[in-house]
User: Fold this.
Amino acid sequence: MDALATPPTEAVDRSVASRPLEAARAIGAVRARSRRRLALVVLIGAAVAVVLALCALLLGAASLTPDRVLAALFGFGDETDRFVVFRLRLPRILAALLVGIAFALAGAVFQSTLRNPLASPDILGISAGAGLGAVLALLVLGVGGALVSLSAFGGAVLVAVVIWAAAWRQGLHGIRFVLVGVGLAYVCGSTVAWLLARADVREAQTALHWTVGSIADVRGDDLAVLGIGVAVVAIGVAVFSRVLAPLSIGDDHARALGVGVDGARVLLLLLAVALVATATSVAGPIAFIALLAPAIARRLVDDGSSALAASAVVGAVLTLGADVVGQFALPGLTAPVGIVTGVIGAPYLLWLLATTERKSRS
Amino acid sequence: MTAVPVESSIHAAAVTPVADLAAEGIAVGYDGRRVIDELDLTIPSGRVTAIVGPNACGKSTLLRGLARLQPLEAGRVTLGGRDVSAMPRREVARRIGVLPQSSIAPDGVRVAELVGRGRYPHQGWFGRHSSDDDVVVAEALAATGVADLADRRLEELSGGQRQRVWVAMVLAQRTDIVLLDEPTTYLDVTHQLELLDLLTELNRVHGTTVVMVLHDLNLAARYADHLVVMRSGAVIAEGAPDEVLTRETVQRAFGLEARVILDPVAGSPLVVPVGRFHNAGPAA
Assistant:
């Protein structure tokens, strides 16, 4: 691939000379404004994430004073302080950020490639499929580590294929396509519940983890798999995200602009499914981040783009924020992150369901 | 990928001979049902071609086949003798621009950004918009008369303005062939004429080959250099409008009794249909 496709031909030079440059500058200014706005959204999001991370570091059961946390952070302080900071709090914060980025990015890719704000992997049962795959690997096959992620990927792909076979041919828009996914999410969810019951999992934390999603017990190895997985796939998404702009104005337009529509769509969706699988195999099917974060990001950026970078930041903030709220908002009551995101996400989903038919008709 | 061929610029197109677009025995259909079969057609280069015919005659399907929006079940489409399906997609997209019937505007997208998407086939894998792209976009906006709207959101515009923005996007693609599927649908008569005048200007000034599917026979007769009349998936007549558009052809294509008179403004044939309740005056 050549880096710069348009060498300044003689024709372009002539047109530069014959027409005032102001018009072109005005075009550049519109683009620059939307770039600045994107940068602002990402920066503010990152700042909020840092503040939330500090809250999560400083708050907690073993009430460490801020100065002891900071001391431990920089390698001072006693053994216990360092254990709490590096083994308990920091991994959880990193897990929240990474899982948030993964779900949000996957949601943004799904919603953009399918041109449907409802078509996000959590609503379509892709996350539930990944959860089922992970639980099968853990409880039935008895494997661990990266194999769990692989099995989660298999489950997620299977759900995607079933949705495609059942509904995508009828078109990507409208409610039918979403209903098939919602149904599949229930099938996967109940199967997970059945497997958990059959395996006689009495530990509430484990059951919660696989039914609503939790990052309370993400540790070293899992975190490494999560970090590497998210980084690699996110780079892949960034490389191929170029086709989202033509794809978002319709398949016909995209084809006319030289995009191999079907191949590009399948590739991007597979990458998104890989993100969902990686995140789910570590944190369980955390609800609504994939649905909510891209919607918020697109509204903040507000330039008609897929807002991938902004989605990732918003996803990280939402997940970490939900985890902080779940841990500390109600004294004496802790809720896993998936419960909090569910409470935030459900009203949005209802609103979206209420307005989506009207929109697709217009 | 190779560098951009010089003829991909509409400015150069007037100088460089434009490659012929042709269909050779193509069959196109939906879900196994062939709408057109074994169709041959050569689009004259540097001319305005209009494809007309009754509903469901396959005129849009033919255009979609030519524009590679619909896969061919048989035959091939050639550009300057080369099979289009064997050419890299990007190269085809730098030579053939398409305005399909349906477009989706993402929420919040601004005119300048949307029109800039027409530059996609000219940008590299990591390509960002360059100032050259801005110049091309500005020219496309000026040509379609929407330069003042560059910073506006698409959803704020009227139907006529929106259609001109989509045309501007196709112009920003800088191709020497432009295919349009019923570009005047949903436009009132003033905007229909404006758009067709714009396409004529594009053809006269830059030598762009224009191919469009049109519903309105009289506008097609007025604006086309070359008229293609279809019926039941086949081309039943083609040529200069004043030769093709006869009483007999209208009867054969549409099953419509009509008189054909001379358009007093353009000098092109004007089809005046005869209805059950209106059949007065001498036969033409």
Summary: Residues 298 and 304 of chain A are 7 Å apart (CA to CA).
